[in-house]
Amino acid sequence: MTLADKLKKLRIKHKMSMSEVARRSRLASDHRGKITQGYISRLESGKETNPSLLKLLTLCDIYKVKPNELFLNPVRKKSKKR
Questions:
Q1: Of 46, 22, 47, 44, whose CA–CA distance to 35 is shortest?
Q2: Which of 4, 63, 71, 75 has the smallest C-beta neighbourhood within 10 Å, fewest atoms?
Q3: Is 71 helix (H, G, I), strand (E, B) or coil?
Q4: CB 35, CB 59: distance < 8 Å
Q5: The model's pTM
Q6: Going residue by residue through the chain (82 aa), what tens digit of pLDDT does each one get?
């Protein structure tokens, strides 16, 4: 799963629109962590592939996840072979 897929999945899981995420990013302690709706769209579509650490930390704060969760592949359960 790509970073774009994970970010979109997190946003949908939290039942937020892109504009809601953008509004919440305005509360970031550092102004460089603020994110526009257009930027979120580019991140989720995979067009933006090099987000700053501050923007990623802002998204982690909004989605209440640890930064490493964005980069780790989910553990898949092994299916039992018969």
A1: 22
A2: 75
A3: coil
A4: yes
A5: 0.81
A6: 899 999 999 999 999 999 999 999 988 777 778 899 999 999 999 999 999 999 999 999 999 999 998 888 765 555 555 5
Scan for tokens 């299916």, then name that residue: 79
Dig out the tokens for 37 from the structure: 């709706």
Cα separations in angstroms, 55 against 65, 74, 77: 14, 22, 32
One-letter amino acid for residue 40 of the chain: I
**What is the rounded distance in angstroms from the CA atom of residue 64 to the CA atom of residue 67?**
9
Domains of the chain: 3-70 (1.10.260.40)
Q: Which one-letter DSSP state was computed for residue 48? A: -
Alpha-carbon gap, residue 62 to 82, rounded angstroms: 43
Query: Are the C-beta atoms of 37 and 22 separated by less than 8 Å?
Result: yes
Length of the chain: 82
